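Listing 4. Sequential folding, example run.
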Amino acid sequence: VKATGTGGAYNLAPGYYRILPVAVDGISHVASEENWLTVPGADEESDDELRERCRNQFNLVGNYHTDAVYRSMIAGVAGLSIDRIFFEHEAPRGPGTANAYLLLDSGVASAPFVDAVNDYINTQGHHGHGDDMQCYAMPETLHDLA
């Protein structure tokens, strides 16, 4: 399936499509299932997003060098804004490990999308010596606001 246009507005959540607006011969139903979004669309970068990306580049020479490098790589591959990438530094799998959580406007990132980012970082060799960086979809949580 390909979007009819570009940008974040076409990153529709699973289950968004359930009804065919016009009958099509040979097609009985439609549905956007889980993991249907493999490459999310991205909007043109705003001035605020450019400002955040520039700030991230200045972190390259500071204490958060590794975060800035990974944030820049992930944003480049995934088409995400850098403010939607969150790190867990507490060595989740032992020394030298970290997790990055990816947040999409359309909801939870699909498995093929996250797999593509992990492939770029780990399989294609875009990681530091001894680094174990794994990317995940931002986990959903439910809260009772009553």
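-- end of first protein; second protein begins --
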Amino acid sequence: MRAIQWRARQNINALTWTSAETVEPKMNEPILYTVPEAMTVLRIGRSLFYELVKEKKLRAVKIAGKTLVRKDDLDSFISSLAA
């Protein structure tokens, strides 16, 4: 479990963050991400993605047979890694 958190933190640390107050909302930004899109944002592989979902560290929903991740859940997960 610690290895998963470490790998996820290493991947997230590679991202650069801007203060939420300086970012303007984008109208074309998705509210739901597909598994490949979420994996790209997190810079992780499919196995680690599903492991995080299984361990309930990242919340995913199924809609019409598709696994999707809400943007808010993705942001919450990323924020939890910084703590």
